[in-house]
Amino acid sequence: MNAYTLDLHNILEISDRQFYDLCRQNPDVKFERNATGDLIIMAPTGGETGNRNIELAAEFVLWNRRIQLGYLFDSSTGFRLPGGGYRSPDLAWIAGDRWLALSPEQREKFPPIAPDFVLELRSPSDSLTDLQTKMAEYITSGVQLAWLIDRAQRTVTIYRPNLPPEVLPQPASLEGEPVLPGFQLDLSFVW
Question: How far apart are CA 177 and CA 14, in angstroms?
Answer without folding.
Answer: 38
